[in-house]
Amino acid sequence: MTEELSERQQAILGILVREYIATAQPVGSKTMVEKYGLSVSSATIRSEMAALEEMDYLTHPHTSAGRVPTEHGYRYFVERLMEQSDLPEAEQRLIRHQFHQARMDLEQWMKLAAAVLAHTTHTASLVTVPRAQLSRLKHLELIDISEALVLVIVVLSEGLVRQQMVRQSQPPLSSEQLTVVSNKLNAQLAGLNRIEIGNRSIELTLFEARVRETLVEVLERVDTRSVTELYRDGLIHILRQPEFAAADSVRQILEIIEERSLLENIAAEVMRGGGLQVIIGGEGRWREISEVSMVMAPYGVEGRTAGMMGVVGPMRMPYGRAISTVRFVASLMSRLLAGVYGEEDETFGGFER
C-alpha cells in the first residue's frame, strides 16, 4: 500500500492489531476508547477506522460492528508500527541451557529447536535439515555385526550421522582389523566430498573398495535429499486457535508441512533473501497459504551449510514474540554449527566449555 497514514490512523491501527491478536475478537470504537483511554470520541475513531477500511488496512466482518486487520494491515503493523525487541534475557538463558544439556548431535539440536520455537511462540514450528552443496566426510567407523555384515557409521562434517550395512570380507575381519581399515580410510578420505572420495587414487583391498563405494552412496543420498526433510512441532497449538476451527484453514497448515513443492518454494525464497522474513497471508504469491502467516529465517554457516527454521500460525500471530524467538534460535543454531565446523575454538556453539 502506498497511502501514508496520519499519526492518529497509525495509533488506531496499532492498537487494533494488538487488541485483535490478543483477543481474536473484532475491535469496535467503543472498546478502543474505553480500554485505551483515547482522547477522542467514538465517532472520530469510527471515522478513522472507516478510512483505514477504504485503504484496505482493515475489514468489517458482516456479523460484527468491529473491525479486524487485513493482510495489508498486518504488513503495515509489522514493518512500521511494531516495537522491535529481543527475547527476554531470562528466556535466552533457559534456551541456551537446554541446548547445552543436549548431546552434540545435529538431529538432537533440530528436534530441540523445533520444540523451543513451538513452545515459546505457541505456534507450529518447522526446522529443515541444513544441507551443504557437497557434504564432506568427517569420520567413519566399522562395526562387526556378524560373519556376513559390517555396519558402516558415517559422520558428516555438518554433524549428520548415517548408517549403512556392507558385506563382510571373506574370511571375516575381526573388530581389530576393522579398526585398522577405519583408520586407513579416515586418514585418506576425511574432509573429502563424494566426488573427491570416488576419484581418490589409493590402493584398496576388495573390502575397502566396497566401503568406499558405500561412502559415496551415503554422501550422494545426503547431497540430493529434499529441502523438505524437516523437524516440526506444535501443530496442537494451531488447532486450538479459533481461525482453524474450519477444515479449510487446517488444510492450509497441513499443506505447508506436507506439500514438498510448496515448502521448497518458500524455503528457496527465504534462503535467497538471506535474513528473517515475515510472510503474511501468502503475500499474493502462494494462494495455498492465504490464511496463515510464517516467520522464517535461514541458519547455518556461510559457504558451508544452511537450513531454514521458523513458525507458522494464523495471521493473528504475536509477530513481535515470533520474530524475536526465531531470530534468537536461528542465531544459536548457527553458532552451534560453526562449532561443529571448528570455527569457534574457545566455545561450544557460543557457550563456554
Output the structural class.
alpha+beta
Gyration radius from CA atoms, angstroms: 26 Å
Oligomer: single chain
Question: How do the strands of the widest beta sheet line up side by side?
Answer: 7-3-10-9-8
Q: How many helices? A: 13
Helical residues, percent: 40-55%
General form: elongated
Described by strand count, sense and barrel closure, the largest sheet is:
5 strands, antiparallel
Content of β-strand: 15-25%
pLDDT below 50 for ≥5 consecutive residues: which ranges?
Answer: 345-353
Mean pLDDT: 86
Termini distance?
A: 50 Å
Order of helices and strands: HHHEEHHHEEEEHHHEHHHEEEHEE
Q: What is the tally of beta strands?
A: 12
From the structure above, extract its key features.
single chain, 353 residues, 3-stranded antiparallel β-sheet, 13 helices, 12 strands, elongated
Written description of the protein model:
The chain has 353 residues and is an alpha+beta fold. The protein is 48% helix and 18% strand. The protein contains 13 helices and twelve strands. A hairpin with a 2-residue loop joins β11 and β12. α1 (7-23) crosses α4 (71-81), α2 crosses α3 and α6 (106-121) runs antiparallel to α13 (319-340). The radius of gyration is 26 Å and the shape is elongated.
